[in-house]
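Propose amino acids for all 95 sites.
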């Protein structure tokens, strides 16, 4: 698609989105287990990843973590999987 012209400034058109390109962040209505508390300073309602250390949850942005840490770059390079259920049915736990 050719760029559109606005006066003398040429503005390139945005490419269209594909369904698999955008990854939604955590659910804004996310409810944490009772034993986990939200960090007061690092819980951003529009954050796109939740990290839990011991009993404290941090809702932050992946971008800065990836920019400043090769560990997070490597971790986020793997495909994400759907969240596992909190509790498995008893029939799935027994052998």
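Proposal:
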């Amino acid at each position: 698609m050719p760029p559109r012209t606005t006066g003398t400034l040429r503005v390139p058109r945005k490419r269209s989105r594909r369904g698999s390109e955008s990854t939604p962040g955590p659910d804004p209505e996310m409810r944490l287990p009772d034993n986990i508390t939200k960090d007061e300073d690092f819980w951003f309602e529009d954050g796109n990843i939740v990290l839990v250390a011991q009993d404290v949850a941090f809702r932050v942005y992946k971008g800065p973590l990836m920019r400043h840490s090769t560990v997070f770059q490597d971790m986020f390079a793997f495909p994400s999987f759907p969240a596992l259920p909190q509790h498995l049915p008893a029939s799935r736990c027994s052998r």
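DSSP finds three helices and five strands in the chain. The helical segments are 62-68, 70-77, 90-93.
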